[in-house]
Every structure is written in structure tokens, then in C-alpha cells.
Specification:
The longest helix is centred in the N-terminal third of the chain and has 34 residues. The protein is globular. It is mostly helical. The protein has 21 helices and no strands. 72% of the residues lie in helices and 0% in strands. 38% of the residues are buried. Helix 16 packs across helix 17.
Length: 482
């Protein structure tokens, strides 16, 4: 059941209306049942893994609160990481080992069983591990009520693709009294509608160009290949932030505040800042539970950069069981290391030119550099393999600038490109406004005529210009596979 499926448009209003109608003591139980039903719709065979995660997390947290034994925490983390490796990385690990042994002259090609990958397993495993670590550190008391603990791990808006929940932020909200509030419903609806616009009008439209060009980059000119790579940078942002908008909007309509997962990342002036604005719940998770325990920046510059590379290599592997994802992660880590090593030199160059640190020209130049660097890294993310990514990059610099097939050969005609271009300008304008205020919250509290005009216009644009039919799959979110 995707956020944009007809079944969700029946499921969510029924869930919310019954939730508000029930007595306070029954509400969390109702939300838990609805969340489990939502997960069952993703595949009944997956439900065992979610239920097992809930049971292990609940009882281990109670044990850690009574006796903070490192061995208990270690065993629980090994269980989660081991299960994640088994279902997500076993085939990749065996294949990598086989290639290493083959290079050493030993032939070993064992048969690896095809195991199902439970939907959202990376997200609720990371939620569970973060919660257990917080309980062990004494930062978070163990939740005594099973229903609340289960709901924290299963809450349907963020269950399948995040944002990754934090106990200190969410568990107190499940104890609160959430009444039906017009402002919350309006804000939630606007966030959801904006997410639908980004997904259907931009992400799914650009996906056609990206898939066409990346499948055979040698058939296109350098400008076309570069345009497709830039299109993927926009596509993945619109796709994933759209899911987060719809998750945040659904929760907000019921009175819950989820963690913001994106804060206009392409307005960043450095790659380090980009990662403070992109997939914030995952970036902060790795910071708190991997980077800082490794020593962070407390043990010298060399150790700091080494820790950054480790974190981004693991982040790359989290996204997919392929070396191309590891390269993507390492590239983002190397960008930050290079940025740190050249910081003084760049400051001197700017002082000589001279360029003001708060000047618009410098800010635009830095944002352009961040976008281009991110785009190069995203090529490895999208291509699926290192040779395929290198083929895309190679065709970006070939002498043929434009293939005779033109725009139709890329999968879209001029009108489609015009729609995508105008939608991108609207996205940029809204993101620019988001730097100073929350557009959805501000609009939700604006005069009724303005709310209705904007909402109807956005709804009309989504319905008329949304991507449907052959060649599109509006239900498939990129991050749903992780």
C-alpha cells in the first residue's frame, strides 16, 4: 500500500477518524493495529520479521535498564546486524569473497539461496538499534508498555522508508492527547500534496530520461548524458523528499511531529553541509552511533578523516549490496576530506580575489560546485555497477556533444521537458522560501481563500501533469528498496 495508492486514500482517513473518536487509552492500540495492517499489505511474509524485532527490542530494552550489561547490548546489535547481512548482503558478500579467491587462483562458487528482503527492514532495524543504545547509555528510559514500544517501531508513516525514528522524540508523543485540529489537518494535507506533486510531476517524469540515457550512454551526446545525470540528482531528491513529505504530512494530520528528513540540501555550500541537510535522520544516526563512538574528531585530524571515510563507506553499503554504492559513499567522504584539507587555501584565494564570505556570487558558486560533485557521486548510485558508472562518466566528456536523436531519443518530447522545467522552477522557489520559513505551516495558517487557491492549483497541476500510465510507476519509491 503506497502513499499514492487508492487504498491509502481509504486507509488513512479511516485510521485517523477512528483514532480521534476512540477513548485516549485505546488510541495507541488502534494505531498499532493499523500500522501492522499497513505492513501486512507490503507482504504478509514480512510481518514475522517486524514482530520479532518488536519483541527482541522490548525485552532487551527492559533488561538493559535493569542491568546495563554491554554483552546484552552487543548480542542484540549482532543479532540485528547479522540478520541484516543475511537478508541483504549475503549474496554480495559471498560473490565478493569468491572474486577475491578467484584472483588468488582458488575457484569457489557456492550456491547462495535467494532470500526475501523484508520491506523497510533497514529502517526499523536502525530505529531499534538506536533505541537500545540510548537505553544502555541511560539517555532514554525503557518503554514499559508493549503497545507503545511496538508502535514506536511500527508507526506506519515512517515504517517502510523513514525518517528513522528516535525514541526521545517520538515516544513522548504517543503519551500525548492528540485531538482533531484544523491547523494540523491543513498543514498535513498541504505537505502530502506537495510531496505528491514532487513525486508525480517531477521525479517520475525525470525517471524516464534517466533510465533511457543510463541504459545506453554511448548512444547520446555528452550534453545529453550530463543532463541525464543532473536529472537523476533532481529525481532522487524529489522522490525521497516526496516520501518524507507524505510521511510527515500524514503524521501531522493526526497531531504527530516526525523528524524533518530534508532541508533544501542543494542550497548547501559544502558537501559536509549537504549531508547535514540530506536524509537527516540517517546522517544523524551514523553521527551519533558510529562516527562519535569511533572517536569523531577528538583524536586528531588524520583519525577524524579516517572516521569520516568509514562512516560514508558504511552509509554506501547501507544503501545497497554493491560496490558501486560503496564507491558512492567513499566519494562523498573523500569530498569532505578534500574540503577540510583545502579549506585554508580556499579562504586565501577568496581573500585575494576578493570574494565576500556572505556574498551571493560566492554562495551561488559553492552551491553549483556541491550540485556537480553530488551529481558525479550519484552516477555510481544509479548506474548499478562500477563499469556502468564509468561508462556514463566517460560519455560525459566525449567530443560528440549532442546526438541526432535529440530530445525524443531521451524518452521525452519538448512539451514534457517544458513541464519538467517549469516544475523544477516551482520546486526551486518553494525550497528557497523554505530557507526562512515552513511554507506548508505558514500557508495552513493563512486566509482561507489563499489556502484554497494554492491547494486547488497544486492539486490540478498534479492531476493534469502527473506521470501516469505506461513507462511510469508512481508507487515505486527509490528508497523503498533500502
Amino acid at each position: 500500500m503506497g502513499f499514492l495508492s487508492p487504498s491509502y486514500f481509504l486507509f488513512f482517513p479511516l485510521t485517523a477518524l477512528v483514532y480521534f473518536a476512540l477513548p485516549r487509552q485505546l488510541r495507541n492500540g488502534w494505531l498499532l493495529l493499523c500500522s501492522w495492517f499497513f505492513y501486512l499489505c507490503a507482504g504478509p511474509e514480512y510481518f514475522f520479521f517486524l514482530l520479532a524485532t518488536v519483541l527482541v527490542t522490548y525485552f532487551v530494552a527492559l533488561s538493559l535498564e535493569k542491568n546495563r550489561k554491554k554483552g546484552v547490548l552487543f548480542a542484540a546489535l549482532c543479532l540485528f546486524i547479522g540478520a541484516l547481512f543475511l537478508f541483504k548482503y549475503l549474496e554480495f558478500g559471498v560473490s565478493l569473497l569468491s572474486r577475491i579467491l578467484s584472483a588468488a587462483g582458488l575457484n569457489w562458487t557456492p550456491a547462495v539461496p535467494k532470500l526475501l528482503l523484508p520491506a523497510g527492514i533497514s529502517f526499523y532495524f536502525f530505529t531499534a538499534m538506536g533505541y537500545l543504545i540510548d537505553v544502555y547509555r541511560g539517555k532514554q528510559p525503557a518503554e514499559k508498555r508493549f503497545v507503545n514500544c511496538a508502535l514506536f517501531l511500527s508507526f506506519f508513516p515512517y515504517l517502510l522508508s523513514g525518517p528513522i525514528g528516535r525514541a526521545e522524540h517520538l515516544l513522548p508523543q504517543f503519551d500525548g492527547l492528540h485531538n482533531m485540529d484544523d491547523a494540523n489537518i491543513r498543514e498535513g494535507f498541504l505537505r502530502f500534496l506537495w510531496g505528491a506533486f514532487k513525486k508525480l510531476v517531477l521525479a517520475d517524469r525525470l525517471a524516464v530520461v534517466v533510465d533511457t540515457v543510463f541504459a545506453a550512454p554511448q548512444n547520446f551526446g555528452a550534453i545529453q548524458v550530463l543532463a541525464a545525470a543532473c536529472a537523476f540528482s533532481v529525481q532522487i531528491y524529489c522522490d525521497f523528499s516526496a516520501y518524507s513529505d507524505m510521511a510527515v504530512g500524514s503524521a501531522r494530520a493526526m497531531g504527530f511531529a516526525l523528524t524533518e528528513n530534508f532541508r533544501t540540501p542543494y542550497f548547501s555550500r559544502s558537501i559536509a553541509e549537504f549531508w547535514r541537510r540530506w536524509h537527516i535522520s540517517l546522517s544523524s544516526w551514523f553521527r551519533d552511533y558510529l562516527y562519535i563512538p569511533l572517536g569523531g574528531g577528538r583524536k586528531g585530524t588524520a583519525r577524524k578523516y579516517w572516521n569520516v571515510l568509514i562512516v560514508f563507506a558504511v552509509s554506501g553499503l547501507w544503501h545497497g549490496a554493491a560496490l558501486s554504492f560503496v564507491v558512492w559513499g567513499l566519494l562523498n567522504g573523500l569530498y569532505q576530506v578534500a574540503g577540510g584539507l583545502t579549506q585554508r587555501l580556499r579562504i586565501k584565494i577568496r581573500s585575494v580575489l576578493p570574494l565576500r564570505e556572505d556574498g551571493k556570487l560566492l554562495a551561488l558558486w559553492q552551491m553549483l560546485c556541491v550540485f556537480l560533485l553530488a551529481t558525479v557521486a550519484w552516477v555510481f548510485f544509479e548506474a548499478g555497477s562500477i563499469p556502468a558508472a564509468l561508462a556514463v562518466l566517460k560519455n560525459m566528456v566525449k567530443p560528440v556533444l549532442w546526438d541526432v536523436g535529440g530530445l525524443p531519443a531521451m524518452g521525452m518530447g519538448r512539451k514534457e521537458f517544458l513541464v519538467a522545467g517549469l516544475a523544477f522552477l516551482l520546486l526551486t522557489a518553494v525550497d528557497a522560501c523554505s530557507l526562512k520559513t515552513d511554507p506548508a505551516r505558514r500557508l495552513a495558517r493563512s486566509p482561507r481563500y489563499l489556502r484554497w487557491c494554492v491547494s486547488l492549483a497544486l492539486l490540478l497541476l498534479t492531476v493534469v501533469f502527473g506521470s501516469y500510465g505506461t513507462g511510469y510507476n508512481a508507487q515505486s519509491f527509490i528508497y523503498g528498496q533500502f
